[in-house]
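Dear support,

Our group has been running a series of protein-ligand predictions, and this particular one with 3-methyl-2-oxobutanoic acid is the one our PI (initials K.S.) wants archived with full inputs and outputs. We had some confusion internally about which version of the output was final, so please treat the block below as the authoritative record. The input we submitted was:
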Amino acid sequence: MTRMTLTRLTEMPAQGEPIVMVTAYDYPGARAAERAGVDMVLVGDSGAQTVLGYDSTVGVTVDEMLVLARAVRRGTETAFMVCDVPFGSTEVSDEQAVETAIRFVTSAGADAVKIEGGGEARLSRLRAVVAAGIPVVGHIGLTPQTAVALGGMRAQGRSVASAERLVDEALAVQDAGACCIVIEAVPAEITEVLRSILDVPLIGIGAGPADGQVLVLHDLLGVTEGATAKFVKQYGAVGDATVSAIAEYASEVRSAAFPSDEHRYAARTDALEAARN
Ligand code: KIV
Ligand code: NA
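Confirmed final output from the archive:
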């Protein structure tokens, strides 16, 4: 497989090929996504929760995200790698946004960054980063970094005002230069409307059919503890499998069943003699 390009990604919808995107936060996750043949990996700030244990995405820093992003880069060959710019790293000014985006490109090898929201300041950041030559993926609908201001982690586009706002923001984010747009937690019918008016690919999460889909790796693997969002489909039970593997190891250590002969090194007799004397 050849490396995914932006040109190819933007051509996929017209060719009826859905874009497959999944998050990754480390080397094994990136390797698995790569081996499974996804088109795009997202180093999501959802990593704040899935791998760093924060209770929301807002606390994660650029430095923390860069550690995750570099590990993902090392495991990614052909997939197009997008990095979330975390909350606080673009809010101050366009200059700050450009500096942050540049760090993700130069020190983590990001192919693009993802910027949440479609308000005036957000659009200005988006234009500035695009003008610096860095592709930007937009993110509208439920934007977790500003979920408090949206009234919590809830679906968007369900009232007249919210639906109108989504249409305005989608068009504005596209006009600001986004190469594609993630749309989160929106009724499928609204996504359909947006799809018909947008030229750039629309990648859904909890938004019904779109030009592509994205899911949080740990949600789809079944690693996440407790309840997940309504839109998550769990394709594995990796969390349970991990717990039972560790529990079995613990039990074998306690019963001295592990390590057995097959996991031991044999000593050379002369070395053994020497050790005994
Ligand atoms: O951080 C993340 O995982 C995301 C996806 C849910 C789109 O932004
Ligand atoms: Na995110």
